[in-house]
Amino acid sequence: MLGRLARYMRIMGYDTMYPNLEISDTELIEICQSEERFLLSRDRQICRRYKRSMYMESDRIEEQIMQVVSLEKPQRSRLFTRCTRCNGILEKGSLNCREEFDPRKLDTVYHCPICGRCYWDGTHSDNILSKLNSLGVYNEDQGK
Within 10 Å of residue 7's Cβ, how many Cβ atoms? Predict the structure, then answer.
């Protein structure tokens, strides 16, 4: 339902759980309560059942990002610190990377110690940062 938003939230450094589709609403609420998580959903009924939730009004990613940022502004220092696949905290170096890359072309590679995915600066990360900046997510005076 909000998979694309979950990936953007992880990119912005939010600790983001994205449950599989087989989990029931009751189980999801129980997880949110036990882990003290805030719940974002496009399902009005589950939002009514759980007080620490927000109904995501739009199905457009830009509007969803702005709705999340209105709750809690992300810290620029946490940008690109989480794995977009599993939410793991990225570590410097290519240890256990399961992806192909040319190490001669890359100064800094980060990897996820949980799933092994690798990340590095490139056009894709530049495009994401440009999109977030165009939405005004980060103030211009904040350091990178």
Answer: 19
Question: For residues 119 and 112, what is the distance between their CA atoms, to the nearest angstrom?
Answer: 8
DSSP annotation of 105 reads G
Global pTM reads: 0.86
Instruction: Quick: pLDDT tens for 46-61.
Output: 999 999 999 999 999 9
Kindly tell me the number of DSSP H helices and DSSP E strands found in the chain.
5, 5
pLDDT of residue 95: 66
- As a whole number of angstroms, the distance between CA 108 and CA 121 comes to 8
- Annotate 27-86 with DSSP letters as a single string: HHHHHHHHTT--EEES-HHHHHH-SSEEE---SSHHHHHHHHHHHSPPPGGGTT-B-TTT
Q: Percentage of the chain surpassing pLDDT 70? A: 86
